[in-house]
Amino acid sequence: MFVVLGSLCLAISREALKEEIRLRINVTDVVSEYVALKPGGKSLKGCCPFHAEKTPSFTVSEEFQSWHCFGCGEHGDIFSFLMKIENLTFPEALERLAKRAGLEVEKYEGGQQISRKDTLAHLNSLAAAYYSGLLRRSTMAGEYLKSRGLADETVEQFRLGYSAPAWDGLVRHLTERRESLDAAAEAGLLIKKDQGGYYDRFRNRIVFPIVDVQERIIGFGGRAMGDDQPKYLNSPETPLFSKTRSLYGLNTARKSIAEGDRAIVVEGYMDVISVHQAGFTNCVATLGTALTPEHITILSRYTRKVILAYDADSAGMSAALKGAAMFDDADCDVRVVRFPGGDDPDSVLRAGRVAEFGAAIDNALPIVDYRLAVLMDRHDLTTPVGRTAMLKEAVRMLADLRTGMEREVYITQLARYHPNFQSGTTRAEEIIRNDIDQLARRHHGSNTAVGIVGSISGQVKAERAVLRVILRNEDGSVFLLESLGPEDFTTELTRAAANAVYEMFERKRGINLAELVESVETSLGAFLSEIAMRESSEPVNEIVLQDYVHRIKNSRVKQMRTSSVLSQHMSEGTINPESWARTGNAEEYEEFLKKSGRKPGEQT
Nearest CA to 378 among 341, 418, 415? Predict the structure, then answer.
């Protein structure tokens, strides 16, 4: 492997290249493209992008150029983060970060010069420029966008384009540039004919480039200009593009979502663009598919507050209501906008009702309240039959809620529609509650998971604190290194951690956390990462450090006193555990192990 720095070509090892990238790119700059980070002590904190959580436990340290989640234990550096978040191989992550760092990497071992995903992104970029040029030359397409109320600046911001009716316009354009038509078909831009050759996938459509948070064009959507079906057409699944993991407009909206701690989700390209143009820049849309757990996971990197602004009768709304449990799983506060019949975000905003749209967003209902409101609208509540039908559906709906506390709020609201309400509110509530409880038991069962939280002994706390001081190179780290050795640590995990830390310090006269974590097995790396990056409010001074050493040394004395191997020697007075622990004479300890028939270093 070699790397090009400007015009200077230098042979460089993979490790040296990784270190150069770490020096040039701040881990927080990369992570903040996916996670809303806020200051928290000496580090930055946010909600973990790799598991659902309500309280932020994901920490990024500029000092160590590392990240760690105290909730799920995931950890690593800039490379491991990009690999996990983007599902990349290490060579792909290395290449992408090298380019970002201004290092042009060429690989001669085992592979193509650029990754497959980069090839597809390059072709998509060429296609987007081609469609944009056609839009500028098409009066019909331009007039259509104006009729939809889009300003020229908005068209440019979202990089809209137009695909002409010709079957081979893009084919010829790419051929002239000597691009691979096979690769263009893999990108979803072209379709291969059975008899050979290719034709354009998008024809006579307004084209919407789909851009990811790294500003790569990963796919396209096309809205038919005429009567062609389907009305909306998306790119197929490719190595670069997945509908269930992509959100239209997120590249533009993510900063606003994080800053305002709220995301608006709509159903179509035009809805997103209209909403952004109206000043609500925290808006995204799914791409011809219902909202999925993957979408919720992506949004939860920026906010836990999601507002669904769908057409009330749409398939998307129906799917979202049926999949409400996924919002609970992700600890999301989901609310639903109620538009007047037949309206959607685009139609409301095109009519100039911006204030009405804003009020609808602000007054969005929690998902259960919305479902109950829809139920009540659907039935004639002035008749006993209508009230009974509504209550039956409401009971089934509330039985799906996971806690009795959630149900109680709605039971009180429903009681007045129950036939027994005339006999008293309490009686009506009791009957509804019993009906819900019976259904809930059938749905959820009676088993609950109980978490067991273990305590950490004072001894282990001291050992972890010592490791933390050394890992963070805090005052007193040299004193600890000179006063203690790996053999002083009492648990298998802390001893293994100490061995790794002491070995690196001996070799490098310092600690590089990212390199250290990468050099050990995964569970040990997670342990070291957690110790180094966990904020501590305990003061660290000379007295505290001496106490750590004393506590750890005393623990070894206790181990020796209770050792079946050494007890005879101690009772005979041939070994003094206090003296040994104070002097740290390992040879003396090993000698007595030998006399007792044990091997040096063998567990006592």
Answer: 341
Closest CA to 490 of 406, 543, 590, 560: 560
CA separation for the pair 116, 98 (Å, rounded): 16
| CA–CA separation, 104 and 96 (whole Å) | 10
Q: Give CA separation, 406 vs 49, 257, 337, 400, 450, in Å.
A: 27, 27, 21, 10, 21
The strand pair at 2-5 and 43-46 is best described as unpaired
**Nearest C-alpha neighbor of 239 from the set 183, 192, 194:** 183
User: Left, alpha or beta for 584 (phi > 0: left; psi -120 to 50: alpha)?
Assistant: left
- Could you tell me where the DSSP H helices lie in 352-422? 354-362, 367-378, 384-399, 404-414
Query: By the 8 A CB rule, do 125 and 165 touch?
Result: no
Q: Where are the alpha helices (DSSP H) in 101-241?
A: 116-137, 139-147, 152-157, 169-176, 181-186
Q: What is the pLDDT of residues 18-61, one digit of tens each?
A: 888 888 999 999 999 888 898 877 789 998 888 877 788 899 98
Query: For residues 245 and 185, what is the distance between their CA atoms, to the nearest angstrom?
Result: 21
Crossing angle of the two packed helices 492-508 and 458-471, in degrees rounded to 10: 20
| Contact call for residues 533 and 43 (beta carbons, < 8 A) | yes
| Rounded-to-integer distance, Cα 477 and Cα 46, Å | 30
Short-list 364, 429, 425, 367, CA closest to 397: 367
pLDDT value, residue 575 = 56
At 591 the three-state DSSP class reads helix
Q: What is the pLDDT of residues 96-111, one digit of tens each?
A: 898 888 886 654 333 3
Quick check: 94 and 73 in contact, CB under 8 A?
no
What are residue 411's phi and psi, to 5 degrees? -60, -45
C-alpha dihedral (233, 239, 241, 242), degrees to nearest 10: 90
- In angstroms and rounded to an integer, the radius of gyration of the C-alpha atoms of the chain is 32
40 strand-pairing partners: 43
210 sits in which H/E element: strand 205-211
Cα separation, 339 vs 310, in Å, equals 8
